[in-house]
Amino acid sequence: xxxxxxxxxxxxxxxxxxxxxxxxxxxxxxxxxxxxxxxxxxxxxxxxxxxxxxxxxxxxxxxxxxxxxxxxxxxxxxxxxxxxxxxxxxxxxxxxxxxxxxxxxxxxxxxxxxxxxxxxxxxxxxxxxxxxxxxxxxxxxxxxxxxxxxxxxxxxxxxxxxxxxxxxxxxxxxxxxxxxxxxxxxxxxxxxxxxxxxxxxxxxxxxx
Length: 208
Fold this sequence. Notes:
Oligomer: single chain
Helix content: 40-55%
CATH superfamily of the largest domain: HUPs
Number of helices: 10
Number of strands: 5
């Protein structure tokens, strides 16, 4: 598929999950293209059955199947080189990288003594600033799998030090009739961890 057409589909997919940014604006932030050219590509994708004829903001099943969506979840309180390597590796596994930023309550359920410096909106903004991340969402209320069910990714990429096991995640997805491939990512810098950075520098930097 033409890379521009795939980018158009990706922008429509992302705006379907987060309608606050229109698909054209989302795409233009990455690729400088005119509204006229964008509309030409939309018409073409409608004609070949990738976009709904009745609503050019929606992908057909064929259009969605043309995209490989990778989902990564985490707290992302302090963005460090370990995060960068992990997220880039996740993006390399597909066409669209969706990052779920954990809610404060969810993060503290997993680790009760966790100290979080930034609120959900700030952490979302931090991750959104990475140009290779296509979409950042704050996790839905409930469990991780409520967010997975909303995104419906093709791949879930776990960080090298995340507590979830690939088997457990895959089985829980199957219970929700989600056909998801679960992978474990490695990192060239395993010592780069938020908890360690906070322990050594957190109080010094933030004065908290």
